[in-house]
Amino acid sequence: MTAAMLQPTVTRLRQRRFKIRFPEDQAFEAATALETETLAVPVLNPKRRYLAVTVPEPQVGMVDAEVELDHQLQVLAAMGGEIVEDYQYDLDDPPPAPTTDSLGNPGLDDVLAQIRATEVWHENRGEGALIAVVDTGIDGTRPEFPIAKRKGSWQPLGDASWTDWKGHGTMCACIAAGTKIAGGAFDGVAPGAGLVACKTYLFDTELGAIYDYLIGLVDADPNLRIVATNSFGRKTGSPPVPPVQSDFVDALEDAIARGIAVFFSAGNNHELAGGHPVACDPNSIWLHKSRADLVSVATCELTGPMWHYSSRGPGQHFGDSNTNRKPDVTAPTPRNGKVVYGASIRTFPTGWGTSGACPQAAGLAALLWSKTPALTPADLYAAIRRGAVDLGHGPDCQGHGRIDCAASLALV
Predict the structure, then answer these.
(1) Nearest to 233 by CA among 243, 223, 224, 225
(2) Domain 4-85, CATH number (from 3.40.1800, 3.40.228, 3.30.70, 3.40.1440)
(3) Over the stretch 296-325, which tens digit does the pLDDT of each residue have?
(4) What is the mean pLDDT of residues 359-379?
(5) In this structure, are residues 137 and 165 in contact, taking their beta carbons and an 8 Å threshold?
(6) Could you say which architecture CATH assigns to the domain 90-410?
(7) Whole-structure pTM value
(8) What are the backbone dihedrals phi and psi of residue 259, each rounded to the nearest 5 degrees, phi first?
(9) Judging by DSSP bridges, how do beta strands 129-135 and 194-199 pair with one another?
(10) Distance from C-alpha of 405 to C-alpha of 374, rounded to nearest angstrom
């Protein structure tokens, strides 16, 4: 297959980017020794023997750079490399345009009160647990993330994890584990938990390397309790075709097997799928979000109704058993709600999306693990589901209901 045949459509990628996988270590090592002044190599993953190559953004479309990419792909193929498109996911980012903070609007403090996070902080604030934010980075200039809270990082080669290319990862990190202790505007659900900043542009190669990095942390210290919050997927109203030869999916499965607790946003696809705002169908929870061994989180308003965009279940991979029926639970995001987004505080007219719901559940998992470190991820998930408050919607809308930190901690 020629490099030209492998070009992704312009609507999918910001640039042409490919993953090259090698069948043996020697070929991978030889490929990584090649030098080029034109191409960028954002990811090297020795464990799975792959690398990513692309044209740097400033040179996208320049003839010399594109020709060099084609030439380099031919060289790598001749060395035994298998070339596939580096699949890119979409953010489950909040619905449109935030405005600047407005005094008097509801915000993260109101959310914490409703899910009863503050009621359990006399027991613990998430100390001892780590929350890995697999997202757009975390803005390290925000006081919600003092140095003592930063427990690790992964980023593409040449990048910096404690910067945020969009603002979205900073929001998720603050909701999960921000703190006011150093002058921050908000506490998160688990303000005592550590943070691991995992910066990604949502490519398969990056996500696979991130989960291999988290596995490495657990292998180095089996006593670590790592919760991963993920707010990405595919933004579509129709079931997407799974990515070809996904190293991310393999690494995710390995991480789950190592005992990492994984949480995903359910997605913001209900309207895209043609769903009526109050209906619990059609299904619009896609791909890995419908795995039975992780938790998918929907979102509702503070007043109780499901947000009109929150994806409905039972999930793309729902089978004959209810063990993987999605979503698992719901978390509230407020209308005109204010929250940290990048370097500033922003207000979102229609909530924070399921992106703002997922880190709430991840923060609850950190509280549970801080209280009872012997819990398995399955124990965490069961306590979160059993403690949830029934909002009166169907299970394909709300799952087991809105999360309740006090009720879940009382179960362990």
Answers:
(1) 243
(2) 3.30.70
(3) 999 999 999 999 999 999 999 876 556 679
(4) 98
(5) yes
(6) 3-Layer(aba) Sandwich (3.40)
(7) 0.94
(8) 95, 15
(9) parallel
(10) 18
